Recover the amino acids of this structure.
């Protein structure tokens, strides 16, 4: 498919060898960002729902690990110098 924008000479662009994407490439960038976001939300949903583990899933395991770290950290802070 030919771009409706006037053709640009790569040598005449002062920003380097790359063409200006603001005229015709911004929509494609937004679409791919949306697709990546949807995949990320789906994976986080699977992890949080417990479908990747028996006892609560990956998200529960991560929360328990962070809780244990916080408890050990707070105990170390409360020790006298």
């Amino acid at each position: 498919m030919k771009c409706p924008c006037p053709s640009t000479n790569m040598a005449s662009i002062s920003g380097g060898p790359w063409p200006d994407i603001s005229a015709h490439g911004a929509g494609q960038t937004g679409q791919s960002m949306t697709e990546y976001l949807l995949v990320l939300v789906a994976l986080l949903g699977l992890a949080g729902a417990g479908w990747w583990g028996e006892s609560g899933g990956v998200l529960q395991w991560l929360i328990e690990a962070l809780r244990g770290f916080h408890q050990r950290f707070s105990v170390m802070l409360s020790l006298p110098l």
Summary: The CA atoms of residues 44 and 81 lie 42 Å apart. The radius of gyration is 25 Å.
